[in-house]
Design goal:
single chain; two-stranded antiparallel ribbon; binds iron/sulfur cluster
Length: about 350
């Protein structure tokens, strides 16, 4: 009997581009694991004309280009609806707004449901789990605005960042998301960027989770969510022995643009001044010296070179010194959905 689910690894598409555009770094929240690093990413809010110029710079209508508008909190920027309209004119094929759920400047009244997908961040299935991570009252505001967006006909997804503080509550998410009318569920793993890379102590234990915790929890929850009809996307993290390792920095086109003009190809590098490109006078300039691109071709048995350099604690070795797992590119995703 055929399985009612499809699970597959989403291979990198050579003709597909992803443009992650941080239009500002300011935010109304102060999440415990915020990935914005003011020292590296600055505090600039891009003027509307610069947003439009940079959208033109990265437009490539001959390729499928997905645009993700983010911040900080992108809905704090009054020019967000204009950016969405311009991006559509410039031929970006899909447009997503990553929001913390506050939907400032009445975004729902200013764009049409077909203009953009709205991706809400929730880190718990209730305020008791979510709010200690994201702030008092955030769960209520986020879920109320999410429900409004669904009622208006927007396609809505939810991003859940799994950490040591909320992994045991992940299993309660599928039912909540089904009730709210969410279509896509993105499960992501806490990284070592921004605040989550900060010093830990007794009062602030590490947020990172072990490979066992991830493997024991995430695939099962993804399966349960797919059973309810949700489309689930989650990082591959551990490659099977027969799966090839590929670095997206070499085989795919991803741009992570920050308002200070830095452009990275690898999100793991965002806390370091090793960005590949700098936007200068609205031109994308390849940098010289020590940049992330120098690392991408380095082949190691552990898989991702930046993971080994930046998160060596995530690696485990057998008695012969061989890595127990190869770590995939952090941009390699798995998809689970009803067939
Ligand atoms: S909503 Fe996003 S940008 Fe704002 S504090 Fe939280 S993680 Fe940082
Ligand atoms: S996460 Fe690793 S494999 Fe992926 S782009 Fe960065 S360096 Fe390459």
């Amino acid at each position: 009997m055929p399985t009612p689910f499809q699970q597959r690894t989403l291979a990198f598409q050579s003709k597909e581009r992803n443009v992650f555009f941080h239009i500002l770094t300011a935010c109304n929240l102060s999440c415990r694991h915020c990935y914005i690093n003011p020292e590296q990413h600055g505090s600039i809010t891009l003027p509307e004309e610069t947003i439009v110029s940079w959208l033109k710079l990265f437009a490539a209508p001959d390729k499928k280009t997905n645009l993700i508008l983010l911040g900080g909190e992108p809905t704090l920027h009054p020019a967000l609806p204009t950016a969405i309209t311009k991006a559509r004119e410039l031929g970006y094929q899909s447009i997503t707004v990553d929001t913390n759920g506050y939907l400032h400047h009445n975004l729902l009244d200013k764009i049409h449901p077909t203009d953009a997908v709205l991706s809400f961040s929730l880190d718990g299935p209730c305020s008791e789990v979510n709010d200690p991570l994201r702030g008092p009252g955030v769960f209520k505001t986020c879920t109320e605005n999410l429900a409004k967006a669904v009622a208006l006909g927007f396609e809505v997804s939810v991003i859940y960042t799994v950490s040591a503080l909320n992994i045991t509550h992940l299993a309660a998410m599928p039912k909540l998301l089904k009730t709210l009318g969410v279509s896509h569920f993105f499960i992501q793993v806490i990284g070592l960027r921004g605040k989550s890379a900060g010093l830990t102590d007794r009062a602030n234990p590490p947020l990172q989770i072990s490979p066992e915790q991830w493997l024991d929890t995430v695939p099962q929850v993804a399966h349960a969510a797919a059973e309810l009809g949700l489309h689930v996307i989650f990082p591959k993290v551990f490659l099977n022995p027969d799966e090839p390792f590929e670095c997206a920095g070499l085989v795919a086109e991803n741009f992570f643009i920050f308002p200070n003009g830095r452009v990275y190809c690898c999100p793991l590098c965002e806390d370091y001044p090793i960005h590949s490109y700098q936007i200068e006078n609205n031109t994308l300039c390849l940098r010289s010296g020590l940049i992330e691109k120098n690392f991408f071709p380095i082949s190691i048995p552990e898989g991702c070179i930046m993971n080994k350099l930046l998160q060596p604690g995530s690696l485990q070795y057998d008695e012969n010194g061989h890595p127990c797992h190869r770590i995939s590119c952090c941009l390699l995703k798995q998809e689970m959905a009803r067939a």
